[in-house]
């Protein structure tokens, strides 16, 4: 029994480790084109902000540890160029050695996602970076270490763009953030976006939304980012306009693709080809709220899907329950989170919904130290079912977004959420927790519309 | 239509306000024996720790505001001495005025709970305090303001005892905590109790458990607390050994009592007498986990039950969903929370369960600033259903206890919890949130027991 895994980051190493753990007799081979394995890519902005830290600190477990401690045949620098699902083989090109063909009993795609680089003149100039792989991080860190960079332009106002705006500001750079959409954080509601914009402004990050970049040029003074509205000078440019699934290898093997070009999988992480699984950022997931397949590449899902694929590859029968699209990030002192559906998910599914915004204190007012939280709930006006939640504030956001995520998993209504028995103690929460107040405000908004 | 409410703190004022809001034509009369209304009793330890703050800062809304802004006939200093549910009248004794009888169409008991004072020699000496009402807080604050007190003994190692150990330590007193049970926090699991004990020790609080107090005496050097093991000198003694429901007035009116002597109510907060409701610390609640009636006097429940009773009194048909016994507190830098069943609830219901303890990091290790969280889950070994959770750590406890509370409300199994889609961002949580790790450890423990 031979299990072959393509890709050695979160999903790949979770799959390989799970297969190994469940079946000591299975031969587990992981093929990785690069040389970095099992690193926490989400930690890169925080590593980059600290000149004293080595980028390799982000490696959770080294290739040697996987080989020796876990008994996994991990082959780095081995690129898979083709998959034959009929012959059950993969074609491998190792660095500095002749290509070879490897047979498999079970195959797991864990090929991840890549940074999307728009077809933009000058995007390949020196000083223009993306941030996806550990190598990307190392290159950017080296550029910062030189000390010559004082001005950065970030293209893209999503999670990575915002986290990097903080990171580069902390490194002493003057940061300009350019977003093509009319607002930062497309898909987030106005009160949340406003909090983020205020936070960026307070830290001196210049934000230009609705700005379409036409080209990047290099002159004597460094790089220039040209938009339809203005030009921005920079010593370095970070392109953070999204990611795409690495599904070409699977597509080449006639494996079906699904949501947004990711590899189609069922709950068992099985693809359309027999004995072939996919997990992580290259694969789609079931959205438990809409019931539809979606592509939301996140580390949490990658780890969980990897486990499921690895277990099933060695004969288990486990399922991935799906996601509710929970995500959170921090930008300077502001925590932001979301779960479930927002306007973009609604328009993709053609579903109608109602929104209700509210603002709450994080603690009992008598205790003091009260931070303000902004919350927007999305719900079905007919059934009252909660469909999504977004929240921003300086503390306690992640925990409350997780409460909403749990409520979404249980298909709770606003009434269910409003009657939750949540913790109260003056230093920790007000007597009516922000979750309960948000639900009560939404109940009123729903009654108002129905009334 | 006249609604009479007995008691003017959390449940009473919630009930009166709700009745007023829903029925502008109803006459709403609140009878309160004392002079303090609508105060946040839970905030007292934090108010007491700050000499600069006035105890009246804890008043959320004054009697005058209720009367003028809300149009509620709030009568302070009016003690109800008897209720006649057949005649639908209450007997009232106002301060400095002749007693009178007041008829009602609907009556709401919101008589609260009182500090339990054990029948102990010397418990009525000067310098011995309880902490329940705002007056209790004012008395203690005045004693502290004198500045003469340097040594405090606290009887009782529950929430209030622990919060006051912090409060009095912050005021510069040397604090000794005496608990009769073998451990602090009876009902909490060993790993949680250990964290609390370590925290108290780090802040110089002396803890004596398994110590039965025989008497309190006063001599030249101040008070002495005598236990079977030792004597403790003190300038002030705080008795914090629990509370009891104020249900004697209801019992005197032949209204049925329920769990632990609290007034029996159904989901509509109706008592056994027609047109008579009860809400808050004087009333029992439905435990959604065990399906049994329990008495867990907490401010959150008081507010919610008050609303339900007030709404139903003026013709609405609302229900209180019940509780899952969620509670949290902070002692120095440690957050502690619990929800659902623990060993004491299990023994009360005769139910068997399994426990699994685990320890998790609060953040991605690559980010740093990782705090350790201790979690104990209680679950049904047969069905895998989650029955309870306890957690201690320096951050992020309340939010995670609320996730477990939500999971309990939805009757989730360990598998359901382990597959929740929770927020991940290095500054906020590790890729496997502590909630997920705790569930996975419990799954393994369950499998181990099932073999």
Quickly list its features.
12 helices, homodimer, alpha/beta, FAD/NAD(P)-binding domain, five-stranded parallel sheet, 451 residues, 3 domains, 27% strand, globular
Q: Can you tell me about this structure?
A:
2 copies of one chain form a homodimer. By secondary structure, the first copy, chain A, is of the alpha/beta class. Chain A has 3 domains: 2-114 and 243-313, FAD/NAD(P)-binding domain; 128-239, FAD/NAD(P)-binding domain; 327-450, 3-Layer(bba) Sandwich (FAD/NAD(P)-binding domain). Chain A is built from 12 helices and 25 strands. Chain A has helices at 10-22, 44-48, 63-70, 134-145, 159-170, 190-202, 248-252, 299-313, 343-349, 397-409, 414-418, 434-450, and strands at 2-6, 27-32, 73-76, 78-84, 89-94, 100-103, 106-109, 113-115, 128-129, 151-155, 174-179, 206-209, 213-219, 222-227, 231-234, 236-239, 243-245, 276-278, 285-286, 293-294, 327-331, 334-340, 354-361, 372-379, 386-393. In chain A, the strands form 7 sheets. Chain A has a 5-stranded parallel beta sheet. In chain A, strand 19 and strand 20 (293-294) form a beta hairpin. In chain A, helix 1 runs parallel beside helix 8. The longest helix of chain A is centred in the last third of the chain and has 17 residues, at 434-450. Chain A is globular and about 70 Å long. Chain A starts with a strand and ends with a helix. The mean pLDDT of chain A is 96. Chains A and B meet through helix 8, strand 21, strand 22 and helix 10 of A and helix 8, strand 21, strand 22 and helix 10 of B.
């Amino acid at each position: 029994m031979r299990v072959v895994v393509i890709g050695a980051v979160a999903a790949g190493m979770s799959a390989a480790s799970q297969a190994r753990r469940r079946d000591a007799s299975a031969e587990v081979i992981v093929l990785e084109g690069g040389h970095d394995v099992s690193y926490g890519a989400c930690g890169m902005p925080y590593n980059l902000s600290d000149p004293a830290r080595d980028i390799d600190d982000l490696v959770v477990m080294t290739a040697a540890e996987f080989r020796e401690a876990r008994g996994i045949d991990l082959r780095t620098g081995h690129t898979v160029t083709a998959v034959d699902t009929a012959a059950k083989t993969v074609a491998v090109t190792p660095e500095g050695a002749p290509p070879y063909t490897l047979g498999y009993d079970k195959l797991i795609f864990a090929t991840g996602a890549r940074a999307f680089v728009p077809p933009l003149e000058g995007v390949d100039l020196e000083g223009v970076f993306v941030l996806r792989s550990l190598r990307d991080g190392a290159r950017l860190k080296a550029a910062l270490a030189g000390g010559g960079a004082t001005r950065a332009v970030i293209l893209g106002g999503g999670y990575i763009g915002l986290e990097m705006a903080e990171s580069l500001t902390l490194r002493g750079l003057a940061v300009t953030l350019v977003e093509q959409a009319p607002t930062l954080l497309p898909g987030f509601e106005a009160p949340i976006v406003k909090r983020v914009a205020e936070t960026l402004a307070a830290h001196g990050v210049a934000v230009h939304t609705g700005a379409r970049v036409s080209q990047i040029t290099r002159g004597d003074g460094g790089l220039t980012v040209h938009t339809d509205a203005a030009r921005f000078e920079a010593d370095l440019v970070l392109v953070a306009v999204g990611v795409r699934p690495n599904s070409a290898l699977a597509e080449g093997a006639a494996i079906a693709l699904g949501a947004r070009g990711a590899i189609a999988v069922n709950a068992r992480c099985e693809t359309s080809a027999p004995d072939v699984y996919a997990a992580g950022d290259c694969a789609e997931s079931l959205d438990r709220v809409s019931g539809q397949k979606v592509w939301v590449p996140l580390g949490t899902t990658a780890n969980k899907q990897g486990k499921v694929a690895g277990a099933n590859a060695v004969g288990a029968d486990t399922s991935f329950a799906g996601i509710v699209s929970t995500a959170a990030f921090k930008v300077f002192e502001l925590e932001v989170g979301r779960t479930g559906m927002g306007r973009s998910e609604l328009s993709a599914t053609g579903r109608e919904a109602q929104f209700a915004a509210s603002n709450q204190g994080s603690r009992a007012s008598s205790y003091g130290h009260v931070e303000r939280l902004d919350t927007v709930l999305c719900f079905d006006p007919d059934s009252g079912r909660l469909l999504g939640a977004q929240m921003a504030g300086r503390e306690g956001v992640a925990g409350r977004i997780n409460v909403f995520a749990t409520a979404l998993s249980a298909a709770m209504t606003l009434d269910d959420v409003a009657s939750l028995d949540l913790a109260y103690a003056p230093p920790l929460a007000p007597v009516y927790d922000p979750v309960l107040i948000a639900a009560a405000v939404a109940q009123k908004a729903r009654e108002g519309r129905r009334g």
